[in-house]
Amino acid sequence: MTSKTDDFKEEPPIEVPMDKLSEDVVKALIEEFILREGTDYGEIEASLEKKKEQVTKQLENDDIKIVFDPNTETVTLMTVNQFAKATRALK
Fold it and tell me: Among residues 62, 61, 67, which one has the least CA distance to residue 32?
């Protein structure tokens, strides 16, 4: 007898094009990403608005990706390196 977890195969993350989501959802993802990352911005702490601008620009430049994780059924932002590492690990 096999359990459901024995049959589970982890799936790689899926990139979600930014234009497929509403502006409000994209804004919420950006804010969650900033608060989760807790990134050090150097000696001068950047305002939340400035951080949002920076992340938005990174999304537009494709340096950060919106990603759906089918394993957890969640959506988040990942850097290009994080996304590449996650997809390579599951190939």
Answer: 67
